[in-house]
Write a structure and sequence with these properties.
The complex is a heterodimer of chains A (about 300) and B (about 240).
Chain A: H1 8-35, H2 42-58, H3 68-91, H4 99-121, E1 126-127, E2 135-138, E3 143-145, H5 146-168, H6 170-180, H7 182-187, H8 192-218, E4 220-221, H9 225-241, H10 246-266, H11 275-290
Antiparallel strand pairs in A: 1-4, 2-3
Chain B: E1 4-13, E2 16-26, E3 31-36, H1 42-49, E4 57-62, E5 65-66, H2 72-78, E6 80-83, H3 95-102, H4 112-122, H5 124-128, H6 139-151, E7 157-161, H7 169-184, E8 188-193, E9 204-209, E10 212-218, H8 219-225, H9 227-233, H10 235-240
Parallel strand pairs in B: 3-8, 3-9, 6-7, 7-8
Antiparallel strand pairs in B: 1-2, 1-4, 4-5, 9-10
Helix pairs in contact in B: 3-6
Classes of the chains: A mainly alpha (about 300), B alpha/beta (about 240).
Chain lengths: ~300, ~240
């Protein structure tokens, strides 16, 4: 029976897909670690960045026709700007409000961004070329593209860099301090508002990187596409890895991707429709029951 | 010129006024103690001086320069630090990280280690627990850490809110002695207290009631006046004494 299972190819493709979840999960963990907020708009920072790359690359509207590398930079700037704007216009006025209010507000930002994307680009999916064309290898049953390899490498680098940022730098420590005791933080001279802006700007940038790489990998972008494709698995990955652990988001993403792909490949649709997501949630509940802080988390 | 001059200070929470326009000054190198019952406005006063609460009216000058209107980081940079009520240490950071962050505004980064050593000199217990998470410290140790963190910015004026709250009488005396030592080393101190055990360390004593000052004099004067007895036990007890 075991020999009949399809393991290697789905595990590999799942790990790569999981890297995308992890990439998006990094931004979620960053904001939860610093603000104790689940940011529902994280995926749409990414979709907006992908649209910005598309528009800049095509020279849509008032934009000049930029070469792809510059279009990518433009896309990342748009995502960072959206993070900063969300902080300034939505998060900061709600600093003293209950966290649940802030979470609902980020869901509102998601809906707004999806509407703006639909207004500018229409509802139909737009084709987005991968940043890195070609395959690393293709054995027929297993295929890994350069774009996918880049996604995995970027995730590893960003997870390690983010973890070092929080454990070794003053600014990283200050962001954690704000999340634990904002009043005490301002009493030692740290600007809580500036720290909040920095965090949301970084989250926007991380979302932008995830969005551009994922949309390039799938070959299309449409309004709300990243929310539909990756937000729920990214949340699951972040919680699975330990919601305050940045390396945990990486590990959680890969595990979630593999579990999802194995289930999709090995459980027939007529037996369990949507088996990937079902197994994913069962796995998540199991981890939370056995280890509530997640795989690498230290705080329950 | 006094180090701290407060004139007609008014503030409150939301639309609710608390301070009714208080005025006092503190001389450089002295220890001032603010006494009063719960709700008298003591914490509101130091929070307003530290920039945590906005100034509704009046003026605060530090070393002759106006600091009212500055935010909390601006006031720390001016040389005023507050060890807040409830300690408010960062529970998920180590003792050492708490102290290092306390030095955030300092430009002389190479001298921060010297100040940490000085804090460990005042509170040897913190040295023993420097790698421990602050949230796992006892109440007394957290109080020491909160005071130590405030010292890390090398303030000229250190304010400590409820230094002895929740501490045993013996531990409270230890904290008062260290604060006295900090004062001897050149830092002007304001202590907000309900514990009269701090009185021997007070050069200046203030009593607050209902958002106003009812006594402002020397510490020795307060001991003799019976004002504390009236504040804490009421008119009848003061008369009987």
């Amino acid at each position: 029976m075991l020999m009949a299972l399809d393991v290697v190819a789905p595990a590999l493709s799942g790990a790569i897909q999981g890297a995308v979840y992890g990439l998006l999960g990094l931004g979620l963990v960053l904001l939860y670690k610093s603000n104790r907020v689940f940011n529902f708009a994280q995926a749409e920072f990414g979709t907006s960045a992908a649209f910005a790359v598309l528009f800049a690359d095509n020279g849509t509207g008032p934009l000049p026709n930029l070469p792809l590398p510059l279009a990518v930079v433009f896309g990342l700037l748009v995502a960072t700007g959206l993070g900063l704007l969300t902080e300034r216009l939505v998060v900061r006025p709600l600093f003293s409000a209950p966290k649940v209010t802030l979470v609902v507000a980020t869901a509102g930002v998601t809906l707004l961004l999806i509407s703006v994307q639909g207004f500018l680009a229409g509802a139909e999916p737009s084709v987005l070329q991968p940043l890195f064309a070609g395959d690393v290898f293709d054995t027929g049953s297993v295929r890994v593209t350069r774009q996918q390899l880049v996604i995995v490498l970027v995730l590893v680098v960003l997870a390690a860099a983010s973890a070092l940022f929080f454990s070794r730098t003053r600014t990283g420590t200050a962001i954690i301090a704000v999340s634990q005791e904002p009043t005490a933080t301002s009493l030692v001279g740290i600007s809580v508002t500036r720290t909040s802006s920095l965090t949301w700007g970084l989250a926007g940038l991380l979302g932008g990187i995830a969005g551009i790489l994922l949309s390039g990998s799938t070959g299309f972008v449409s309004p709300g596409s990243l929310t539909g494709l990756a937000l729920i698995p990214a949340f699951t990955a972040a919680v699975f890895g330990g919601i305050t652990s940045l390396p945990g988001a990486f590990l959680g993403g890969v595990v979630i991707g593999v579990v999802e792909a194995l289930a999709q490949s090995n459980i027939p649709k007529d037996v369990l429709p949507g088996s990937g997501r079902v197994v994913l949630f069962v796995a998540l509940l199991s981890v939370l029951l056995i280890r509530p802080a997640g795989l690498l988390g230290k705080e329950a | 010129m006094s180090l701290l001059e407060v004139e007609g200070l008014r503030t409150g929470y939301g639309a609710l006024p608390v301070l009714q326009g208080i005025s006092f000054s503190v001389e450089e190198g002295e220890t001032a103690v603010i006494f009063g019952l719960n709700g008298a406005g003591k914490t509101t006063t130091v929070n307003c001086l530290a920039g945590v609460l906005p100034v509704w009216g009046g003026e605060v000058r530090f070393d002759g320069k106006k600091i009212s209107g500055k935010d909390a980081p601006g006031i720390v940079r001016a040389g005023v630090a507050l060890s807040p009520e409830g300690r408010r240490v960062w529970p998920g950071l180590s003792v050492l990280k708490n102290l290092e962050l306390g030095a955030w505004v300092r430009k002389d980064r190479h001298e921060v280690a010297g100040t940490i050593a000085q804090v460990f000199g005042y509170f040897p217990r913190l040295d023993e627990r420097k790698d421990q998470l602050a949230g796992t410290l006892s109440g007394g140790e957290q109080q020491m850490l909160a005071i130590g963190r405030a010292i890390m910015s090398r303030p000229r004026l250190l304010m400590i809110d409820e230094a002895s709250l929740g501490l045993s009488p013996k531990l409270a005396q230890t904290v008062f002695q260290v604060v006295s030592q900090i004062n001897d080393d050149g830092t002007t101190v304001i202590i907000v207290e309900q514990n009269v055990g701090v009185l021997p360390y007070a050069d200046q004593a203030l009593i607050m009631e209902k958002g106003a000052l009812t006594f402002d004099g020397r510490g020795a004067e307060l001991e003799e006046s019976g004002e504390l007895r009236r504040t804490y036990l009421g008119e009848a007890a003061a008369a009987a004494h």
